[in-house]
Amino acid sequence: MSSAAPLAAPPAPRFAQVALPLPLRTLFSYHIPDELLGLCRPGGLVLVPFGKGTRQGIVWELSDEAAWSGGEIKPLADLLGEEPVLDEAQRHLVDWMARYYLHPIGLTAWTALPPWVEGERKLRAVWLGSARPAEKSQALERIPANLRELAAAVAQRSHGLLDSTLAGKFGRPGLERRLRQLAAGGWLALEEQWSVPEGGRRRERPLVEELPLTPPPRLNDEQQICVETIRHALERRRFAPFLLHGVTGSGKTEVYFQAVETCLAQGRQALLLLPEIALTPQLAGRFRARFREGLALFHSGQSESRRREEWLRVKRGEAPVVAGARSALFAPLERLGLVVVDEEHESSYKQEEGLPYHGRDMALVRARRAGAVVVLSSATPSLESLANAASGKYALLRLTRRATGAPMPRVELSDLTQATREKRLIPGHLLGPDLTSAMEETLAAGRQVLLFLNRRGYAPALLCPRCGFSFQCPHCSVALTYHATPHPSLRCHYCDFRQPARDVCPRCGQQSLSRFGPGDQRLEKEVRERFPEARCARLDRDSVASGGAGAMEDILEQFAEGTFEILLGTQMVAKGHHFPGVALVGVVLADLGLNQPDFRAAERTFQLTAQVAGRAGREDVSPGRVVVQCHDPSHYALRAALSQDVERFRQLEEPLRREAGFPPFGRLALIRFSCEDRAAGELFKSRTRGWMPQVPGVTWLGPVESPLFKLRNWFRWQILVKEAAGGRRLHGALEGFLALATAESGPVRLEINVDPQSFQ
Ligand code: ADP
Ligand code: ZN
């Protein structure tokens, strides 16, 4: 037994470096007043004087010396709660992100911070003395004069009071400190409460229906090997990244469920990241059936108070399994053992606005720090992850067969150009002859059809056939999309501008305008006309918005149960679903995404086509059927999707990427600058060349107008910065540019996006 005498605690540091939610890339130094010494800890929320007022901030570091010598160091105004709002692991992640994405530290911290923290924490003060008037005033007499009025206010109410009521009268700064002094003197008791915001408590459909507990299925050999391998890694309790590449329906979910169970048995926590769009009630139901109360779920359809409750359950250690979209990455997990990134190839893991972070990449950063195992999972992994697996950076796990025993679907390409030439496709129609006859056969056999067209609305343009006039968004440089339902309108898919559609050309007076190009509302109309007997539903952002809360859940559920025969729609129908009755999948226009100004266009087309094809015949004995309509059936992305052959696609795509120096063979950053005043933007643009440091290995491309030149009335330009893989100078070069450009930016908004996923 150790008999060491307790050591005297070292003196508490006197200065705090505080992160403030401002677009500045520095921490701010404050002096810690005596009464807060020792209470003020990293991660704590504080109130600080700033400019003429006060602001909330987060203590980032403590030090014995001020980190700033530029002038007077002011004291912290108050401490808002004793519990840190960001723990050590969260702060590490924020630090990392702020550096990697060259983003202001305070704004990065605020992205990680649960939104209700600000102003939502309440302190309940309870008078401990007698309630009888005479005794009460005697007690108040003994309280120091500067605290007496506050004590009297508390004592006035027998059930205590919340500091929001006090704040109006006594002012927020220092209030908590004075309450704490009263509590220390034994005059009152303080309890911290996380308050539910009053009013506005939105009624919401539960995302998860109560389900019977499902016993786990017996794993097949391939699954067994994957689970064993992950288990061994978990036992070593060290960072270990895996790429789980399993064909659609191969039972990947079951693999990581069992890995999660091992992790929980070790007393550690697990995080499951999913693309927002894949987080359907069906999937959430599977999670709940397995982890019950141990599951905390985060998704965008949730009310703030629900999110808060879930967050607190995680923080209190009641929910060791966290599932959610990108932002679940910031959950307060202190014993993280396993991170799963489902559909790791999804570009929606990248946030493009605000803090432009990639959820998958940051999951790796978080896991490395925590000594956790990471499983990136997909039927169509990204080229980046495939390259990391090929180089041995990730261990590769493979599932090559469907878990239900169903064979992989048969995919056929249907050439629309040829059908048009042979006059077998009616001009303006979307369903070609092959797809139509496949639909007839499938419906006749009593099976279901899923149709995918990745464009909402009726037609992407309304044109005058006489003078060529087309309707443009007044705020963006794009054509307005024609929507036929709920009433004819023209809408901007970027800024949501809307106007009623009229059938007269405003320029030449022509009476009937042509609705040009594909859209899923047009598809719906055509399907209803061709198959009047079949019941059909459309699922896209518009139908969800007009159908009200629960519309998407209802449609997906009813289709899974076989209530109707045809489901058509955008990406929403393509992802992750398990529909047992679907025997035919039709990809209505597979090459729609190929002509985007984006080097990943082919990869996305391949992934999307292979993913949606994977919805066919998931439980059938005979293979499901997939008809992929396209204009260019010789395109390598479509040919690879035909066999759902990821390796083949990789072999065809990699040489192109290597030659261009694009990921995974190079790193990119996109510098975007935008301005409401076009001339000021042009002037800034003309000066950018002078700010680009010439660093070996770093290439500057641009400045050029962004493909989407005007967005919400802002004019936009961009510079693409490129560095060969393995280089270490990209960040330095960007820093150099930023230092010069920021100083001159004036009305210009300057943003840096490291590892961009969108180039519009
Ligand atoms: P993936 O995520 O790879 O697309 P899922 O995990 O959704 O595949 O599994 C597809 C189907 O196979 C689900 O219905 C699942 O319940 C079932 N399944 C998974 N593992 C097994 C197994 N070992 N035996 C039988 N069915 C399984
Ligand atoms: Zn617009």
Low-confidence stretches: 194-209
**Total number of distinct structural domains:** 6
Number of strands: 30
| CATH superfamily annotation of the largest domain | P-loop containing nucleotide triphosphate hydrolases
CATH structural class of the largest domain: Alpha Beta
Approximately what portion of the residues adopt beta-strand conformation? 15-25%
Q: Which small-molecule ligands are present, each listed once?
A: adenosine-5'-diphosphate, zinc ion
**Cα Rg:** 30 Å
Q: What would the average pLDDT be, to the nearest integer?
A: 89
Tally of individual helices: 23
CATH architecture of the largest domain: 3-Layer(aba) Sandwich
What coarse outline follows from CA principal-axis ratios?
globular
* Helix amount: 25-40%
Task: Kindly name the structural category.
Answer: alpha/beta
Per the CATH scheme, the topology name of the largest domain is Rossmann fold
Our measurement of the CA-to-CA distance between the termini, rounded to an integer number of angstroms, reads 67 Å
